[in-house]
Design a protein that fits this description.
about 120 residues, mainly beta, Jelly Rolls, 8-stranded mixed sheet, 1 helix, 8 strands, globular
């Protein structure tokens, strides 16, 4: 294993809503994603999902409230909770989730990614 520079990894891709794997740790994957616009409401029945904002601002719409996450902050969506990520401007995220986590959880959509690309 070598030192990973997160900004250098972000510089390697421009596509949005398509997380890239930059590492694994104890059955977890470390992902980077660039997002803008709205995702779909979905949930993960068996996994919590951590969203850490590196740049921009993330709004996580839940069924009962909206959570705003700013650079340097993170929020954990508990398993089973429906959520919809929204980014008004391009936002860069660092995500931690189990290797088994599906991109859009229990929903299949045009934006669903089956296998994350490693960069």
């Amino acid at each position: 294993m070598s030192v990973i520079n997160i900004q250098e990894k972000f510089d390697l891709f421009s596509d949005q809503w398509s997380p890239k794997r930059i590492g694994t740790l104890n059955g977890q994957q470390i992902l980077l994603a660039k997002i803008q616009g709205e995702f779909v409401f979905h949930k993960h029945d068996n996994e919590d999902e951590l969203f850490m904002v590196m740049k921009g601002q993330l709004k996580l719409e839940l069924r009962d409230k909206t959570v705003t996450v700013n650079p340097g902050e993170f929020y954990v969506v508990p398993k089973g909770i429906e959520h919809k990520p929204i980014a008004e401007e391009e936002t860069h995220l660092l995500l931690f989730e189990p290797l088994s986590t599906k991109h859009t959880g229990d929903v299949m959509a045009d934006i669903t990614v089956e296998n994350y690309e490693s960069i």
